[in-house]
Amino acid sequence: MIAYLSGRLVFKDPTYVIIDVGGIGYQVKISLQTYSKIKDEEQIRLLTFLHIKEDAHTLYGFKEESEKRLFLLLISINGVGPNTGLMILSSLSTDEIEQAILSGDVGTIQAVKGIGAKTAQRIILELKDKIGKSSSELTAPLGFLKSSNKIREEALQALITLGFPRAVAEKNIAQVLKKTTGEISLEDLIKASLKTP
């Protein structure tokens, strides 16, 4: 719902910031990764994720797209809520987390406070392919990679918004992209994915 906030940094703490956007102060939870990248910027722009529960609406903020993407992958796992996702991102860098997942390093992930052996194994099992895919795609020419990855992500979000389960949406997009030669527009990718049985 709120993709990013851009405004004046009013308050900064290692766990949250307050950003003044047009006279309204937004409190945004952040990881230590984001905290260390903000430094003492006066004007700030954070990518955000809004988590809604019956008793709270909480904003989570990220300085970089890669961190937000990893956070969304982490919280897609059963047993990993937004606060746990933030804890993982505060304990390890994005690269360290991705390396641990790709190499099946349960110990590194389990070392994070509040992560048990089962949850660490589940994170590795469920995210290995997703993170492996994005790493293997780095062999593609960079210009094409950026556009195709962005289109894939946008199409995935569109299908999820339309009510598709994430796994089904990913499978449909992968099938369409396998059959496609050359570039494909976002609209065509979404339309073709909707028609995939």
Can you describe this structure?
There is one protein chain. The protein has 197 residues and is an alpha+beta fold. Helices cover 54% and strands 20% of the residues. The chain contains nine helices and five strands; from the N terminus they run βββαββαααααααα. It has a five-stranded mixed barrel. Strand 1 and strand 2 (16-21) form a beta hairpin. Helix 2 crosses helix 3 and helix 7 crosses helix 9. The longest helix has 20 residues, at 117-136. It is globular.
Question: Can you count the beta strands?
Answer: 5
Percent helix, as a range, is: 40-55%
- State the secondary-structure class: alpha+beta
What order do the strands of the largest sheet run in, or round the barrel if closed? 1-2-3-5-4
Determine the oligomeric state from the structure: single chain
Which whole number gives the mean pLDDT?
85
Spell the H/E element sequence: EEEHEEHHHHHHHH
Shape: globular
Largest sheet: 5 strands, mixed, barrel
List the main descriptive attributes of the protein structure presented here:
54% helix, 197 residues, 9 helices, five-stranded mixed beta barrel, alpha+beta
What's a concise summary of this model?
The protein is built from nine helices and five strands. It has helices at about 30-40, 65-75, 80-90, 95-100, 105-110, 115-135, 140-160, 165-180, 185-195; strands at about 5-10, 15-20, 25-30, 45-55, 55-60.
